[in-house]
Design goal:
- Helix content is 37%, strand content 19%.
- The protein contains 5 helices and 7 strands, in the order H-E-E-E-E-H-H-E-E-H-H-E.
- The strands form 3 sheets. A 3-stranded antiparallel sheet has the order 6-5-7. It has a two-stranded antiparallel sheet with strand order 1-2. It has a two-stranded antiparallel sheet with strand order 3-4.
- Helix 1 packs across helix 2 and helix 3 crosses helix 4.
- The termini are far apart.
- The relative contact order is 0.13.
């Protein structure tokens, strides 16, 4: 019964594709003719034939490859990134001083901090906040205070109204 159903499925598949001619042998694999009055036909994959026949010898055929989904377009460049970089350059000397002070108490001190600096709709900076840190609290507090005291020219901050600029810093700095 299984063989009859498999043969019937193969016949239906061939007729549905418009192929009424018999299959040919090509290097041990069955395939439909490359050209026919009805148009072009592709070679039948051995795994598909085995599935249609219900055969268990599909293991020697290569598994079908799933098509990868189309990749998303790259995100647009962040207009505020240069503002963050400029601000980080201004604040870095004070931030480094906090790190040096922390190393006096803990010689093997290392870690990172991300500070978010909100810019309001008028381009004025609001209080910075620690977004992430792996540094001790006294060092983090010192760095936050250093950022608070660092001025950001209104001409720069006006480029990013209603945005948060993130300042990531890692210590020790990579060479």
């Amino acid at each position: 019964m299984r063989v009859v159903l498999g043969a019937a499925a193969l016949l239906v598949a061939c007729v549905a594709c418009g192929g009424g001619s018999s299959a040919t042998k090509t290097s041990g694999k069955e395939s439909l003719p490359a050209k026919d009055a009805g148009g072009d036909f592709a070679e039948i994959h051995p795994a598909d034939l085995a599935e249609l026949r219900g055969a268990s010898d599909a293991g020697d055929a290569a598994p079908p490859v799933a098509a990868s989904p189309p990749s998303d377009p790259p995100p647009p460049p962040d207009e505020c990134a240069p503002v963050g970089v400029d601000f980080e350059k201004r604040a870095r000397p004070k931030i480094k001083e906090c790190y040096r002070e922390g190393k006096k108490k803990e010689p093997d001190l290392k870690g990172s901090i991300k500070i978010g600096l909100e810019i309001d709709y008028q381009g004025k900076t609001k209080g910075p906040k620690v977004l992430e840190t792996t540094l001790p609290k006294p060092v983090t507090a010192c760095m936050l205070e250093a950022v608070k005291k660092t001025p950001l020219p209104i001409t720069e901050s006006a480029k990013c109204p209603n945005k948060t600029v993130t300042i990531p810093v890692t210590f020790p700095t990579p060479p």
